[in-house]
């Protein structure tokens, strides 16, 4: 890979984390795929040769469990959902160059080839380990067939992950007091031979890799505890019938762990694309094996460790290229709370379309409501506000009034020169757009288009061309037509269909999808007809009220079903358990005197280090003006501790002392949200300054 700014001369590959073929898609799932699609389209506007691929994750115990409950084979169960995803993504203009699945022949062959290479290079060994066994069912219990207590934090956990506590990845044999999910009876541990990847051998490599990695800060910082700590080898086999068979001799009863074959689908899917279009157009081996390449993974933040610890080690062991960037998106909440598919508290992908909304409206909301790594809070009211105030009032209004005035009064583009001011404004937007993409900031890239449209609206309003004669109005409308073209180019990655409509209204050559940033300043067509109407329609309050009533009714019905003991088919997604709710406002008010009792001070971090043995805790040395305090904060996985010294923070200075993990904490540092966004000062307030 390189660290050259996009566009580079190397082929780029953008991938999205594989959707698990285990349930229906809702708008929370779509955020990752819309973001990946928008980023890949945007790279192409820069002139970057790019492919966009993904596929369905078909293996693993949840699929086997759910298939058994339905009385169908795992393959039939997973293929049904895979086909549903294949149909759904294009309906939201998510346009993969190739969309495969992990059970197809290409991925099976590549996965087994990876493992053989690991063995040849002595990266795999066999070890006898403790594996949970259900005597009553007379079978081994992989992953989610076993539950119990997390050995690290003591919370209830499933066999592969502490999903309710510390979020650690768990290996077979880790669960304390295991219970079989098949029978509900206690399980017992028995000796069993399994295959392990020597992950610990790659620790030094991973330390360099994580420092080279581009993308979002959560992807760069969260894995550091794993990489810099006691890195354990990875068990790569499971006792199951469903999966890819381990290719070694005498291992017929073992399949590969799902997190072995799942990321290899990125390679398989790009190989399938290459075989379809030809290596002269796109060569998958050039991307993965030969020279420099630009591999960007767009994923949900719940699978950061898999993509920044397991995956680069797997690639290194097989002599493949490492990714350039990992961009981890936040979750999508609904009305301030996490999605709950079991309670039907979700906006389903099919439901959104059935309500008659254009897919580009949701794409715009998901891509620009927050930065890549921040959570997005979806509500019909917020959706309405963004559509009405930004897409309808700004973009749609500008495009319609500019082209309508130009067509009626000049039959198209006026015969006038583009003014220097507008040319400079468009050029600055092009630079901002390119900078945003090199910062992996899809939101900022989308905002450049809206900002141009806003500038155009103000320009028309201030110039009042309807009050001018033709010669005076011509330069104004000439500028505005050029602005329309630039808006269409820059907005295309996020709202591709609507941008294409604007392009067609302009009667420009080719298509907006094939346009590059340079086309923003290329000449506009001499003539075009009046637009058929505005690009975007407003959503009225009555429609929002109706949608909220439907949602509330569904939630109440599903909750009542659960209380009555009925089974609700859910296809639970991981965001439900791991995405923190945006809490409702506390109803009980506090008096001003109570607030004044809090001694909030500006502090400056002088030192920061992780607390040994604690997953999330860091020891901070904070100067609060009158003295220096030791404060324990749960930010170890969320911040690069080496970069914190010098950071201004807000400290609750009169909080009672506490002992956390054996370390005294004398105060509290304030932070917002699940990503621990540290509260700081806008100006240069000195340490010790009281916050009022």
Automatic annotation (TrEMBL):
UniProt entry keywords in alphabetical sequence: Aminoacyl-tRNA synthetase, ATP-binding, Cytoplasm, Ligase, Metal-binding, Nucleotide-binding, Protein biosynthesis, RNA-binding, tRNA-binding, Zinc
GO molecular function, one term: ATP binding
Catalytic activity: tRNA(Met) + L-methionine + ATP = L-methionyl-tRNA(Met) + AMP + diphosphate
GO CC annotation: aminoacyl-tRNA synthetase multienzyme complex; cytosol
Class of the enzyme per the UniProt entry, highest EC level: ligase
The UniProt record lists the keyword Cell inner membrane: no
Cofactor note: Binds 1 zinc ion per subunit.
One Pfam family in the UniProt entry: tRNA_bind
Compartmental location: Cytoplasm
Limits of the TRNA-binding domain: 594-692
Residues at which ATP binds: 341
PROSITE patterns in alphabetical order: AA_TRNA_LIGASE_I, TRBD
Residue ranges, compositional bias (Acidic residues): 558-581
Family: Belongs to the class-I aminoacyl-tRNA synthetase family. MetG type 1 subfamily.
Known partners and oligomeric status: Homodimer.
Protein function: Is required not only for elongation of protein synthesis but also for the initiation of all mRNA translation through initiator tRNA(fMet) aminoacylation.
UniProt-recorded name of the protein: Methionine--tRNA ligase
Biological classification of the source: Archaea, Methanobacteriati, Methanobacteriota, Stenosarchaea group, Halobacteria
